[in-house]
């Protein structure tokens, strides 16, 4: 009886040892995988850091200003080109509808009370000649000479 | 047979005793083994639960540089970050042919000193650093040499994408990536700062500043063009939120490139805003007028006799724009009357005037995240004459940072907020700062500042729509112990918009020349004032100040003019 139990125990021991070895090797493989992935994350993070540094290097105001001067014929906006939405009346809005201006990229600003406080961009001569929002949709540059002619 | 029987009995007894002994020993041994197994088993289980740090990575980290948190401006634009670069090192124990190695390395890296490297390899340490911040090309060439004993470690390197745009605020780091100056140093001294400012998008740590990159850039560009236009030696400027005390922009030209450490040591490139002390000139009259109004000794309707110069010992105080009559308080301010200002200070009395300046923080160092600013130069024996000259800005040297900070209560309703380079809400600033002036004083000062732009010496500072108020100051520099007529320091302090004040701009030009652009004059009204006006016209939209034209503006201006 005792012998039988002993044999059982020895067999159990051998079996357990096998299982433990296997688990150990699996764990070691996983460990290596973790290390590899950790390293990969580190590499990616470094790459992201480099890209972010490059992004802000390319987006620094100095460079944007230089490029804008070279390629865009835009001038800095003046306070005269800004008008608050409160200054625009319903009558102006109706009139613009009658003129059937195609709303190209125009946001229907009057329908958005949330942006009501934000000044809309208008051309300097807009106040007398045309209506603020429909000129605001014109994406053309504002020549300095036009402003001086005001 | 009794003998054998006796013998048998004896044997049996001996045998039993022997068996009993054996059993005891056997049990003891069992117990011993069981204890040993339990001990080992228990230890194994315990080890299984313990997380061993070293077993996880297995990568040896011998990097010497520390990883620093990124620095962002108030809108999250990157101002400073770390990127990795390779550092070449040698392990002398594994080097086979020292001379060959030195020769080959020196052929790839021209700036490595061969003799020095040979000596260091001979010294017998296990780690000899050869060169930092290798380019990828150099790294490939070193690999191609195939020399044993050479190795690379990855080290962090600080980069500043904005280069010198905000260098005086951000500061710089040394070769080991430790902060030497500016915010970089402050971050090292206060590591909890990076923790508090929760992680950025990439999962790293970051520190957010109160600086607005757009404002900073405009300030720098305009000061640069002012140096060119007025042929000044140097220029400096600061923009502050007058309710929260946040610094939105700080520029001192010439500045340095934080990637070139040796530049930062150049005296000419120092931070004039925080480290230079200057006699500010007439712009100081702001404080004199505020003092006399706040003490209740005078009102806007009071007047002072400025008909004749004041003589005190061998000094004579006279006016630059002399009117030779009695001047009301607003007139003293807009005509920038030295006599009037001196009389105001005398009206307050030396003790009270000094206490007033002290309350505003003009007599002690200003402390910010950039460290202590330079100490102001206060007269050691404060006499009556000192009070009179300080009243119009001579005889007391302060840092521009201190000056701008002290001016905040004059416009924000009288709250003595301290300057900061970290974001702070206006509510926080208001609740933690003491009141130093009466609200009426602040309202009067705003009117005077606006009046000075409408009618006085600061007409050229007007930025259409932004209701600028300002005060000019022209100080003669001390050259060789005497005030010089030709070497001037011109200042302009502006607050805008004056009907609902938000920001303060201080511009300082060092030795502007008499050029055609400034009508062949060199006073602050023709160089510092228009520079400030240009800056305000450009930063107004960035800061979201709504311009007011025509009616709205006239209404306030009419009130201002009526009060005068």
Sum up the structure in keywords.
heterodimer; A: 150 residues; mainly alpha; 2 domains; two-stranded antiparallel sheet; 4% strand; disordered C terminus; B: 564 residues; alpha+beta; Penicillin-binding protein 2a (Domain 2); Beta-lactamase; 42% helix; 20% strand; elongated
Shape designation of chain B? elongated
Tell me roughly what share of residues is in helical segments of chain B.
40-55%
Radius of gyration of chain B: 37 Å
Task: Please report the two chains with the greatest interface, counting residues with C-beta closer than 8 angstroms to the partner's C-beta.
Answer: A-B, 29 and 33 residues
Give the total of beta strands of chain A. Answer: 2
Q: Could you tell me the strand content of chain B as a percent range?
A: 15-25%
What is the H-and-E element order of chain A?
HHEHEHH
Oligomer: heterodimer
Portion of residues in beta strands of chain A equals under 5%
CATH fold label of the largest domain in chain B: Beta-lactamase
DSSP helix count of chain B? 21
Shape descriptor of chain A reads elongated
Total domain modules of chain B: 2
Poorly predicted tracts of residues of chain A: 103-150
**Which stretches of chain B are low in confidence, meaning pLDDT under 50 for 5 or more residues running?**
55-61
Classify the secondary structure makeup of chain A into a structural class. mainly alpha
How far apart are the first and last residues' alpha carbons of chain A, in Å? 115 Å
CATH architecture of the largest domain in chain B: 3-Layer(aba) Sandwich
- Helix percentage of chain A: 55-70%
Number of strands of chain B: 20
């Amino acid at each position: 009886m005792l012998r039988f139990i002993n044999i059982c125990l020895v067999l159990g021991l051998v079996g357990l040892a096998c299982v433990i070895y296997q688990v150990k090797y699996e764990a070691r493989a996983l460990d290596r995988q973790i290390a590899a992935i950790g390293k990969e994350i580190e590499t990616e993070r470094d790459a992201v850091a480099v890209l972010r540094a490059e992004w802000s290097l390319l987006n620094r105001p100095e460079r944007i200003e230089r490029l804008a001067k070279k390629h865009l014929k835009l001038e800095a906006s003046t306070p005269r080109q800004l008008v608050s939405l409160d200054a625009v009346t319903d009558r102006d809005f109706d009139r613009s509808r009658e003129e059937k201006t195609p709303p190209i990229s125009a946001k229907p600003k009057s329908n958005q009370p949330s942006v009501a406080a934000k000044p809309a961009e208008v051309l300097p001569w807009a106040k007398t000649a045309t209506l603020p929002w429909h000129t605001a949709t014109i994406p053309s540059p504002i020549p300095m000479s036009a402003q001086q002619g005001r | 047979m009794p003998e054998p029987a006796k013998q048998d009995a004896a044997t049996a007894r001996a045998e039993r005793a022997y068996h009993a002994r054996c059993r005891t020993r056997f049990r003891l041994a069992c117990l011993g083994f069981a204890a040993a197994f339990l001990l080992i088993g228990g230890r194994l289980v315990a080890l299984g639960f313990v997380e061993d740090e070293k077993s996880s990575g297995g990568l040896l980290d011998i990097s010497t540089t520390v990883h620093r948190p990124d620095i962002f401006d108030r809108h999250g634009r990157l101002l400073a970050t770390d990127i990795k670069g390779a550092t070449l090192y040698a392990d002398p124990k594994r080097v086979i042919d020292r001379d060959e190695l030195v020769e080959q390395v020196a052929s790839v890296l021209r700036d490595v000193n061969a003799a020095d490297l040979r000596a260091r390899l001979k010294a017998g340490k296990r780690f000899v650093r050869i060169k930092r911040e290798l380019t990828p090309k150099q790294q490939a060439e070193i690999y191609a040499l195939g020399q044993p004993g050479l190795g690379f470690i990855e080290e962090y390197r600080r980069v500043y994408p904005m280069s010198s745009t905000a260098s005086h605020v951000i500061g710089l780091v040394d070769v080991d990536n430790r902060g030497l100056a500016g915010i970089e140093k402050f971050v090292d001294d206060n590591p909890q700062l990076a923790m508090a400012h929760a992680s950025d998008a990439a999962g790293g740590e970051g520190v957010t500043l109160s600086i607005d990159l757009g404002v900073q850039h405009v300030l720098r560009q305009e000061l640069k063009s002012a140096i060119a236009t007025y042929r000044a030696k140097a220029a400096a400027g600061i923009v502050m939120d007058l309710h929260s005390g946040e610094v939105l922009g700080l520029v001192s030209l010439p500045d340095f490139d934080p990637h070139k450490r040796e530049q930062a040591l150049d005296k000419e490139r120092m931070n004039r805003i925080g480290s230079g002390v200057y006699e500010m000139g007439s712009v100081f009259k702001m404080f004199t007028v505020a003092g006399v109004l706040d003490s209740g000794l005078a009102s806007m309707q009071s007047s002072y006799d400025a008909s004749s110069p004041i003589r005190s010992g061998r000094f004579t105080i006279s006016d630059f724009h002399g009117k030779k009559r009695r001047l009301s308080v607003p007139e003293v301010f807009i005509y920038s009357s030295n006599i009037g200002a001196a009389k105001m200070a005398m009206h307050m009395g030396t003790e009270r005037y000094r206490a007033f300046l002290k309350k505003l923080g003009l007599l002690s160092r200003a402390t910010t995240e950039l460290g202590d600013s330079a100490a102001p130069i206060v007269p050691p024996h404060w006499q009556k004459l000192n009070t009179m000259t300080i009243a119009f800005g001579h005889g007391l040297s302060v840092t521009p940072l201190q000056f701008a900070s002290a001016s905040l209560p004059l416009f924000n309703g009288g709250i003595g907020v301290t300057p900061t380079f970290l974001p702070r809400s206006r509510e926080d600033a208001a609740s933690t700062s003491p009141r130093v002036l009466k609200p009426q004083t602040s309202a009067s000062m705003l009117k005077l500042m606006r009046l000075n732009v409408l009618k006085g010496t600061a007409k050229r500072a007007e930025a259409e729509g932004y209701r600028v108020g300002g005060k000019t100051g022209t100080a003669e520099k001390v050259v060789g112990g005497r005030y010089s007529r030709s070497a001037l320091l011109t200042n302009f302090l502006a607050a805008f918009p004056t009907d609902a004040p938000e920001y303060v701009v201080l511009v300082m030009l060092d030795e502007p020349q008499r050029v055609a652009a400034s009508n062949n004059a060199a006073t602050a009204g023709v160089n510092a004032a228009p520079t400030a006006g240009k800056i305000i016209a450009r930063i107004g939209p960035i800061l979201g100040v709504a311009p007011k034209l025509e009616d709205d503006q006239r209404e306030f201006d009419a009130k201002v003019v009526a009060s005068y």
